[in-house]
Amino acid sequence: MINPTSYQALLLHALQKGDVIRKTLISGPSVGCEELSQDGQLLAWRYDSEPDWETGEVLTELLQTDVELVICGGGHIALELATYARRLGYHTTIIDERKEYCNHERFPSESCLCAPFEEVLECKQTWIRPYFVIATRGHMFDQVCLQKILNLPHRYIGMIGSKTKVAATFSNLLSLGFTQAQLDQVHSPIGLPIKAVTAAEIAISILAQIIQTARLTPQAVQLDRNLLTHLAHSRQSYVLARVIEKTGSAPCEVGFQLVVFEDGTVEGTIGGGAVEAKALETAKQMQKECTIAEQVAVYNLSNAKASELGMICGGMVRVLFQRW
């Protein structure tokens, strides 16, 4: 079995290139065994000898990371975008060579890269297939950004600009060898057609389109990029609790993860509340007692049984506990 750090590092690296398929046994004698694949190729596995996948229930997931927004240009649209993206919990990066438009006073919670667009977009970044919004101060800067971004891994490209300027940009890029299929990926006009006028309205229309794009594959699991990065570099053992099924209105999604490290620190979430508290108890106990087997726990939140957890929101949550 590949060691936990290498396994998570392989997953992180693969996600920078595209979606990953995770297959996990969630019942039977080999509960917790899993493997990762991409484009039909096996990437990594979590077992000493391959289990019989027919002996238990198998969960197959399409893995992505949570939304990461990269905004080219730090003007008034970017300011509104960053404000609303913050509320959505998105990781946001601002690129602009003008210090007065790209600083932590203006963007207190965002990553600010104050350098020429071309320079930033040519350098290796830690982004994982981000959502790009091109909102620069001029037509030529738009073209520079789009020319570089089309060759980068991405899940969305949107560009602000008049029909005339966008058409000119596309024409120039076609003459440089880009294909119409590549340009067809670009959302321009950008945003959902809600007749937005103000900067705030335009930002909302753009984020609505990004949400729509992110949710196009309803079964996709969006992993927490920060937690995954931590696991890919951690030298500690840990117990990982992750949601493998959810029904009703429980405040979580399939793929939510909570980790208890050997030093007792906790990172991640499976939705908070009483379910998370119970899961945390189990994970901490497993961390203390190595004889406790990997397992799946079911938390019933229906009105009939909710009193067990002090919740009546309805539904059910299944959580898989694994040792790493």
Would you mind describing this structure in some detail?
With 324 residues, the chain is of the alpha/beta class. It has three domains: 1-64, no CATH class; 68-214, NAD(P)-binding Rossmann-like Domain (Rossmann fold, 3-Layer(aba) Sandwich), CATH 3.40.50; 236-324, no CATH class. Helix content is 31%, strand content 27%. It is built from nine helices and 16 strands. It has helices spanning 4-15, 76-87, 117-122, 139-149, 163-175, 180-183, 199-214, 225-233, 273-288; strands at residues 20-25, 34-38, 41-46, 58-65, 68-72, 91-95, 111-113, 131-134, 156-159, 186-187, 220-223, 238-248, 257-261, 266-268, 295-300, 315-323. α4 crosses α5 (163-175).
Measured distance between first and last alpha carbons: 11 Å
Bulk shape: elongated
Average pLDDT level: 92
Number of strands: 16
Computed over alpha carbons, the radius of gyration is 22 Å
Order of helices and strands: HEEEEEHEEHEHEHHEHEHEEEHEE
| Structural class by helix and strand composition | alpha/beta
What percent of the residues sit in helical stretches (DSSP H or I)?
25-40%
How many separate helices? 9
Tell me which oligomeric state these chains represent: single chain
CATH architecture of the largest domain: 3-Layer(aba) Sandwich
Please specify the SSE layout and strand pairing.
Layout lengths: L3 H12 L4 E6 L8 E5 L2 E6 L11 E8 L2 E5 L3 H12 L3 E5 L15 E3 L3 H6 L8 E4 L4 H11 L6 E4 L3 H13 L4 H4 L2 E2 L11 H16 L5 E4 L1 H9 L4 E11 L8 E5 L4 E3 L4 H16 L6 E6 L14 E9 L1
Parallel strand pairs: 4-11, 5-6, 5-8, 6-7, 8-9, 9-10
Antiparallel strand pairs: 1-2, 1-4, 2-3, 12-13, 12-16, 13-14, 15-16
